[in-house]
Specification:
Layout lengths: L22 E7 L6 H12 L6 H6 L3 E7 L9 H7 L10 E5 L8 H15 L4
Length: 127
């Protein structure tokens, strides 16, 4: 597990972390409607637009957990708004889910990670 950060200066290094990746956890700030388009474009760049590129091959089949962070803040985006904003229904190459959470309180962090483990367990052969 690694946190590769979302700053633009770090994005070119993301592909270095994807070898043998079973799950991708994408964290969205549910209070930041202005950046949801940027967030969608970056995610699409990883999963949808690089068909045939090494990055996609390394992420092939990885579970996608979208943590909607800051959902404890009034006026945040709903699950449906995030799903639409990220155009998750267009993602056919990965099983995905959205889990509302709060990094401050820890709400639903365990549930999201349990989903990742269960989804990966269903796909991987355990000996």
């Amino acid at each position: 597990m690694g946190d590769v950060g979302g700053q633009k200066t770090l994005r070119s290094y993301w592909r270095n972390y994807f070898e043998k990746t079973d799950a991708l956890i994408w964290v969205v700030d549910a209070t930041d409607r202005l950046r949801v388009d940027d967030c969608r474009e970056e995610l699409a760049g990883l999963l949808l637009e690089e068909v045939g590129a090494d990055t996609l091959k390394r992420l092939m089949g990885a579970s996608l957990l979208v943590f909607a962070n800051k959902t404890d803040v009034g006026g945040c985006m709903t699950r449906e708004e995030i799903q639409e904003g990220l155009q998750l229904d267009a993602i056919k190459t990965h099983k995905w889910t959205i889990v509302s959470c709060s990094a401050i309180t820890g709400d639903n962090l365990k549930e999201g990670l349990e989903w990742v483990v269960q989804d990966a367990k269903e796909r991987l052969f355990l000996y």
